[in-house]
Amino acid sequence: MEFKFSLKYLLLTIAIFLIEVLIATKLAHIFFIRAYLGDVIVVMLLYTFVKTFVKMNDEKLILWILGFSCIVEFAQYFTVAEKLGFRPGSLMYIVIGNSFSWIDILCYAAGCLLLFLGLKITQSKKKKQTIAG
């Protein structure tokens, strides 16, 4: 792991964040997008955010993000936000969340799997381009 700023990942982070804001505000009435797609995309947001500042092994980072996401989800099961004194509607209450769901964990796993597959496809294409000349 090495600290290294990446403008490419910063721009991707901003773009994905704006998509998440769009989902939470303008597309909130579409259940599938709000309930599932947002959770799939949020792990990608975490990935690009970390990659903005740190150069590290992609597979380890994806596993770390999946673990982190599960910890946050289980914190919801144990109502950690309330126990820490955060009020409903406050930023930290929203970040930690307030309702546990196994489906959310499946969405995080699906997002991590898509990230992993996307990286493998990208690496394969780069490798073929290097070999081809």
From TrEMBL:
A molecular function (GO) term: hydrolase activity
Sorted UniProt keywords: Hydrolase, Membrane, Transmembrane, Transmembrane helix
Taxonomy, superkingdom: Bacteria
Pfam families listed in its UniProt record: DUF2809 (PF10990)
Transmembrane segment boundaries: 7-25, 31-49, 61-80, 100-119
Record protein name field: Effector of murein hydrolase
Species per Swiss-Prot/TrEMBL record: Chryseobacterium lathyri
